[in-house]
Amino acid sequence: MEYIRILKYLVQKNVSSVFSGKSQQKLNSVDMDGIVNFLAETNEVIVMTGAGISTNANIPDFRSESFGLYNRLQKYNLPHTTAVFTLKYFKENPAPFYDIAHEMYPVLQNAKPTITHYFIKLLDQKGKLLKHYTQNIDCLEELAGLEGKKTVQAHGHIKTGTCLGCQKSFDFKFLKDKVIKNEIPRCNECSETIKPDVVLFGESLPKEFWNFTSDFSKCKLLIIIGTSLAVQPFAGLAGQVDLNCPRVLINRDQIGDSEMLGSFLTNLFHLNPEFGSTSNTHRDVFLEGDCDKICLQLAEKLGWKEELLKLMDENNRNIEEKKSKI
Ligand SMILES: [Zn+2]
């Protein structure tokens, strides 16, 4: 059903794009300064984020080689490494998933938002942030003070868990206390396994995600941070803005062709051409490097640097109190 919905939207959008005329450059210059000048004048900004914005908070990217997922899970004889993140396998054997969770929960418990999280919060304070779409489950944007309604957690979150049997909801503390003791959390009503409310492969994305058309049709500037847009349907969002809407990618790596070619549907309708391709040189800016350094640079050029650092200092002082609530 979800793919039918995307297909319907893409057909409509493709038809309208045929009649929308030639590409129009909205940036004074297609570089960092062009983005800074445009951002200073623009209010409907959407930010898309991925694991790269949380690596400076010491939260590892599961898919990175340094995390060594394969070696960690070798003892379980999984049919394939990513089986650990599928709903089907989780229902059969949640032990490998909770083995990783056992390592991750203390990290998540102690993590603090990064400069990038505060940059997103500052965009909101300035009245510029339309919405933040994230693949991250760590809720660090919320810790940075961003209101829940401003973020779409496309892959769920760790704040709560749900019993696979009776659907009873459990809070972070309940899950964390079990996971830290290396126990698999079980429901205190029906004894079934509890699954954190993260989206596993084979599960639908949250319904808030599927409202993306109303957000992306209004977007005037798309800022993509810390993701190589490898996972669909999230990656496809980058192709949902107006064909002339400037897009900036802040990441250690450029997005490769093979990754962006991952979705048959989006490519069929040519609505998600690779970032920075020749058809997008009028609107795509790639800022290569560490997200925090680049966000700080942007803030400096916008005259927001002091404000950003003050926001981070003040909020970090109160963070322990906030952490006790999630
Ligand atoms: Zn239950």
UniProtKB/TrEMBL annotation:
Q: Annotated Gene Ontology MF terms?
A: histone deacetylase activity, NAD-dependent; NAD+ binding; NAD-dependent protein demyristoylase activity; NAD-dependent protein depalmitoylase activity; zinc ion binding
UniProt binding sites for Zn(2+): 163, 166, 187, 190
GO cellular component terms, alphabetically, are: nucleus
What does the note accompanying the cofactor annotation read? Binds 1 zinc ion per subunit.
Reaction(s) catalysed (UniProt annotation): N(6)-tetradecanoyl-L-lysyl-[protein] + NAD(+) + H2O = 2''-O-tetradecanoyl-ADP-D-ribose + nicotinamide + L-lysyl-[protein]; N(6)-hexadecanoyl-L-lysyl-[protein] + NAD(+) + H2O = 2''-O-hexadecanoyl-ADP-D-ribose + nicotinamide + L-lysyl-[protein]; N(6)-acetyl-L-lysyl-[protein] + NAD(+) + H2O = 2''-O-acetyl-ADP-D-ribose + nicotinamide + L-lysyl-[protein]
* EC category: transferase
Domain Deacetylase sirtuin-type intervals? 25-305
Sorted alphabetically, which InterPro entries does this protein's record hold?
Answer: DHS-like_NAD/FAD-binding_dom (IPR029035), NAD-dep_sirtuin_deacylases (IPR050134), Sirtuin (IPR003000), Sirtuin_cat_small_dom_sf (IPR026591), Sirtuin_class_I (IPR017328), Ssirtuin_cat_dom (IPR026590)
The entry's keywords? Metal-binding, NAD, Transferase, Zinc
Q: Which family does it belong to?
A: Belongs to the sirtuin family. Class I subfamily.
Q: What is this protein called?
A: NAD-dependent protein deacetylase
Q: Which organism is it from?
A: Brachionus plicatilis
- Provide the organism lineage as a comma list: Eukaryota, Metazoa, Spiralia, Gnathifera, Rotifera
